[in-house]
Design a protein that fits this description.
Layout (H helix, E strand, L loop, with lengths): L3 E4 L1 H17 L1 H20 L5 E2 L8 E6 L2 E8 L4 E9 L8
Helix pairs in contact: 1-2
């Protein structure tokens, strides 16, 4: 049974800002960019442990998948069967705060 996917407000804002940034120079690419990120996130509902533990936090419930140039940081709440997308962070921005 799949986990429920939820988006933290911070992740929603990150995604909107990234899409706007891409759209400024390449409007057609912005839609493809967001679509690829969403496909990656949807995969987590079936495979929540597929991402690696975020090294900066060293907490097994805080994981990430890389979809260049972004880090998709998420929290696995196994007891509730929830994957919470916490941040969608452009790699050039350094370490995300969760």
């Amino acid at each position: 049974m799949a986990y429920e996917l939820i988006w933290a407000p911070s992740a929603r804002l990150d995604l909107r800002e990234l899409a706007s940034y891409v759209a400024e120079s390449r409007p057609a690419a912005a839609g493809r960019f967001v679509s690829r990120l969403l496909q990656t996130v949807e995969h987590l509902a079936e495979f929540p442990q597929s991402g690696r533990v975020v090294p900066e936090f060293d907490d097994p419930s805080i994981r990430e998948v890389i979809r260049k140039p972004c880090r998709i940081v998420y929290r696995v709440k196994s007891a509730d069967r929830v994957v919470e997308i916490v941040r969608v962070w452009h790699a050039a921005r350094g370490t995300p705060e969760c």
